[in-house]
Amino acid sequence: MQELAQHEGAEASIVNVEAVMQQVAEHKGCGTSGGSGKASCGSAAGSGDLPTEIWEKVKNHPCYSEEAHHHYARMHVAVAPACNIQCNYCNRKYDCANESRPGVVSEKLTPEQAAKKVLAVASTIPQMTVLGIAGPGDPLANPEKTFKTFELIAKTAPDIKLCLSTNGLALPDHVDTIAGFNVDHVTITINMVDPEVGAKIYPWVFWKHKRYTGVEAAKLLTDRQLQGLEMLTERGILCKVNSVMIPGVNDRHLVEVNKAVKSRGAFLHNIMPLISAPEHGTVFGLNGQRGPTAQELKALQDSCEGEMNMMRHCRQCRADAVGLLGEDRSAEFTTEKIMAMDVDYDLESRKAYQAKVEEERVAKVAAKQEELETLAGESSDIKLLIAVATKGSGLINEHFGHAKEFQVYELSTGGAKFVGHRRVDLYCQGGYGDEDSLETVIRAINDCHAVFVAKIGGCPKSDLIKAGIEPVDQFAHEFIEKSAIAWFKNYLDKVNSGEIQHIERGDAEIRQGALTAAA
Amino acid sequence: MTLKIVASQCTSCSACEAECPNVAISEKNGTFVINPKKCTECIGHFDAPQCAAVCPVDDTCIIDNAYPRYQPAQ
Ligand code: SF4
Ligand code: SF4
Ligand code: SF4
């Protein structure tokens, strides 16, 4: 399966795509990458209550740590196009629908090409710390290619973390090899633990030279997935579980899935919205199966959150995306360009760069803590969402019209919590506002009370106000959480003094189609 | 007889290549093809043609009627 890497926004910070290439997308395919720890997976900048060993492993992983997502980059390479199961949300003409952006074909690479690409990207982008193999296809249905790629990279770039996403069918057979390569993050896409539900998601699986269908296929798959998960966690390998939320098929059932995977040691559960449109040519796309709304997704994530870490920053990146989550610099690293490059892998300068990033991260956390103290003593039941335009580093540093996506934070007297991304793709092409796209943006963040930007034009500003969303630009280039808390405090003061009235906002739309870089 | 791959439907995923017991499948110009001289319809190896069983696109690995049925050696 390919999952798209769906990270919604928050993982490691994103490096500018343009500036650096980021290729971190997790793999598509069945596995997605995980999110960060619990603290609501999201926004917590710190270790929250994750056990120390786990925090050590995930803190610089853009897919697992929402906070790291702002600072580090991951890359995915597509070396494993074959798959051993069929999912109704996948059309394998393209990248894995689940993980990546349907309709976008990734470049297939040999293990040698992939290794060279990884080294080239890592030397250009020092933030690149994670390599994932995901879809299209299942990495473990192509074990030779997958492990050869790992072997080549581990030799030259021992500082790069390796991760893998899988549908789990072949997982139990490869656990020892995975452990041998020191792969510390594995993502398994688990959409059900009940074969009756599974039969509606998977038309068939190919297992030991035979195609199985229906409930029998789903039973086989769920048994293998859970067995593989147990085997990995027994060996101390971090496991994240991705689930695709399919309304009416497995939406309620995912609470069961959450319990099953948690009891088997998964450290993080990423629930992703189904991406399905007829033009993707998937079974679900063609039969009109809809994806969840933003509110439905959040409600499900919230109901699982008490149980374990949920990952909310997944953006369903394309498998071969290069960059910080949400950025895609793949075009700079086409096979042709890479093969012509002289790659000089400099471990020392990468370390120095990463040390600098650590300093920034500490400063950001300190700023948030300080601001949080000003909220102490306030008490209010008000909880609201805000959207933030950011290019990464935890700053409000994107122009409204240039934002391809917004990060959404939930504000309450408890602070600012990252809860997800909203994709809008480009509303402003070359500086001219385009009314229709502005409507798209408004629909995507319609559940937010305010949108924080570095800059915004007069026209969109008045339309946002009309739609009831306050454009906020006075915190340009400041830390997101610190600014959000300051704004929220002011908002509460105004509500308390009767100057404004707090009203709930409606639902928002989840944009269909995977995140692609601006053309 | 042998199987053939309908080139216009093949996604070039390579799944069939690894499953063929006779190494009859290879990549040619971006799509996969079956060598009719090597294909045995999987007779003697498996109950069903492996390429058809693993292929993600229905009706892509199909019987090629241009050839007589494969006769297993007696
Ligand atoms: S069919 Fe295979 S490649 Fe597609 S989503 Fe499912 S597991 Fe991933
Ligand atoms: S039918 Fe069997 S022998 Fe023939 S090409 Fe397919 S897998 Fe190979
Ligand atoms: S399995 Fe099907 S789609 Fe994949 S390469 Fe073979 S014929 Fe093409």
Automatic annotation (TrEMBL), chain A:
<keyword id="KW-0411">Iron-sulfur</keyword>
<dbReference type="Pfam" id="PF04055">
    <property type="entry name" value="Radical_SAM"/>
</dbReference>
<keyword id="KW-0004">4Fe-4S</keyword>
<dbReference type="GO" id="GO:0046872">
    <property type="term" value="F:metal ion binding"/>
</dbReference>
<dbReference type="GO" id="GO:0016829">
    <property type="term" value="F:lyase activity"/>
</dbReference>
<dbReference type="InterPro" id="IPR005980">
    <property type="entry name" value="Nase_CF_NifB"/>
</dbReference>
<dbReference type="InterPro" id="IPR013785">
    <property type="entry name" value="Aldolase_TIM"/>
</dbReference>
<dbReference type="InterPro" id="IPR034165">
    <property type="entry name" value="NifB_C"/>
</dbReference>
<dbReference type="InterPro" id="IPR058240">
    <property type="entry name" value="rSAM_sf"/>
</dbReference>
<protein>
    <recommendedName>
        <fullName>FeMo cofactor biosynthesis protein NifB</fullName>
    </recommendedName>
</protein>
<comment type="similarity">
    <text>Belongs to the radical SAM superfamily. NifB family.</text>
</comment>
<dbReference type="GO" id="GO:0051539">
    <property type="term" value="F:4 iron, 4 sulfur cluster binding"/>
</dbReference>
<dbReference type="InterPro" id="IPR007197">
    <property type="entry name" value="rSAM"/>
</dbReference>
<keyword id="KW-0949">S-adenosyl-L-methionine</keyword>
<feature type="domain" description="Radical SAM core">
    <location>
        <begin position="69"/>
        <end position="318"/>
    </location>
</feature>
<keyword id="KW-0535">Nitrogen fixation</keyword>
<comment type="function">
    <text>Involved in the biosynthesis of the iron-molybdenum cofactor (FeMo-co or M-cluster) found in the dinitrogenase enzyme of the nitrogenase complex in nitrogen-fixing microorganisms. NifB catalyzes the crucial step of radical SAM-dependent carbide insertion that occurs concomitant with the insertion of a 9th sulfur and the rearrangement/coupling of two [4Fe-4S] clusters into a [8Fe-9S-C] cluster, the precursor to the M-cluster.</text>
</comment>
<dbReference type="Pfam" id="PF02579">
    <property type="entry name" value="Nitro_FeMo-Co"/>
</dbReference>
<dbReference type="InterPro" id="IPR036105">
    <property type="entry name" value="DiNase_FeMo-co_biosyn_sf"/>
</dbReference>
<keyword id="KW-0408">Iron</keyword>
<comment type="pathway">
    <text>Cofactor biosynthesis; Fe-Mo cofactor biosynthesis.</text>
</comment>
<keyword id="KW-0456">Lyase</keyword>
UniProtKB/TrEMBL annotation, chain B:
<feature type="domain" description="4Fe-4S ferredoxin-type">
    <location>
        <begin position="1"/>
        <end position="30"/>
    </location>
</feature>
<dbReference type="GO" id="GO:0051539">
    <property type="term" value="F:4 iron, 4 sulfur cluster binding"/>
</dbReference>
<dbReference type="InterPro" id="IPR017896">
    <property type="entry name" value="4Fe4S_Fe-S-bd"/>
</dbReference>
<keyword id="KW-0411">Iron-sulfur</keyword>
<dbReference type="GO" id="GO:0046872">
    <property type="term" value="F:metal ion binding"/>
</dbReference>
<protein>
    <submittedName>
        <fullName>4Fe-4S binding domain-containing protein</fullName>
    </submittedName>
</protein>
<dbReference type="Pfam" id="PF13237">
    <property type="entry name" value="Fer4_10"/>
</dbReference>
<dbReference type="InterPro" id="IPR017900">
    <property type="entry name" value="4Fe4S_Fe_S_CS"/>
</dbReference>
<keyword id="KW-0004">4Fe-4S</keyword>
<keyword id="KW-0408">Iron</keyword>
<keyword id="KW-0479">Metal-binding</keyword>
<keyword id="KW-0249">Electron transport</keyword>
<keyword id="KW-0813">Transport</keyword>
